[in-house]
Amino acid sequence: MPIRKFAVPSSEAEIPDFLNAIVLLANFVVIPATAYGAQLALGALGVTLVYSVLRFANFAHGDLMAFGTAATILIVWLFQGWGVSLAPLPTAILALPLGMIITCLLALGTDRFVYRFYRHQRSPAIVFVMVSVGVMFIYNALTRFLIGVDDRRFEDGERFIVTVIGFREATGLDQGLALRTSQVLTVIVMVLVTTAVFWFLRSTRTGKSMRAYSDNEDLALLSGINPDRVVLVTWMLAASLATIAGVLYGLDKSFRPFTYFQILLPIFAAAIVGGIGQPFGAVAGGFIIAFSEVALTYAWRGFLTHILPPDLIPAGLVQILSVEYKFAVSFLILVIVLLVRPTGIIRGRVF
Amino acid sequence: MASAMFALAAPAAHAQESVNIGITFGFTGPLESITPHMADAVEFALQEANDSGLLPVTLNPVRADSTCIDAAAAQTAAERLVTSDNVAAIVGADCSGVTIAIANTVTVPNGVVLISPSATSPALSTLDDDGFFFRTSPSDARQGEILADLLTERGIEEVAITYTNNDYGLGLAESFARAFEERGGNVSLSAPHEDGRGDYSAEVAALQASGAQHLMVFGYLDQGGRGIVQAALDTGAFENFYFADGMYGESIIAAIGPGLDGRVLGTVPGSDSAGATSFAELAADAGFDPTSSFAGESYDAAALIILAIAKAGSADRTAIRDGILDIANEPGEKIMPGELARGIELLQNGEDIDYVGATDVELIGEGEAAGSYRVFEIRDGALHTVEYR
Question: Does the predicted interface ipTM exceed a cut of 0.85?
Answer without folding.
Answer: no
